[in-house]
Amino acid sequence: MSKKRSDKPKTAAKKPTPAREAVTPDRCVRLCRLIQLLTNGPKKRDVLAKKLRLDVRGFYRDLDLLRKSGVSIALLGGLYHLDQKPNEATDLLPFHDPLLTIGEARQLSKGRTVAHRRIKAKLEQILKPA
What local confidence, expressed as pLDDT, does residue 128 receive? Predict the structure, then answer.
């Protein structure tokens, strides 16, 4: 027996596209550092803001951008937690110039041309351990 066909085409559910926002090189580095700090365990807002040299408003702006980018950070008992693997979170961050994510920049850095090496060097500069 054959199955009946529906006239309506099936559409796959799409994941929402993370926000793409232009960031300065300094902010890109700071967002990576914030993820690195949370990788070492939950932290209070005051501790994170101090280590990142941010005021409260700046901290919440960066936190908002991380969340809009798809990074999962939760506040439990006054402590901020990273709710995903650090590499997954870092790959979602906006790259500072052509509105790329870190993951897209990593993909573009794989190659042998001068452009590949330049992107790779920029990534190493941004992702160096805190």
Answer: 87
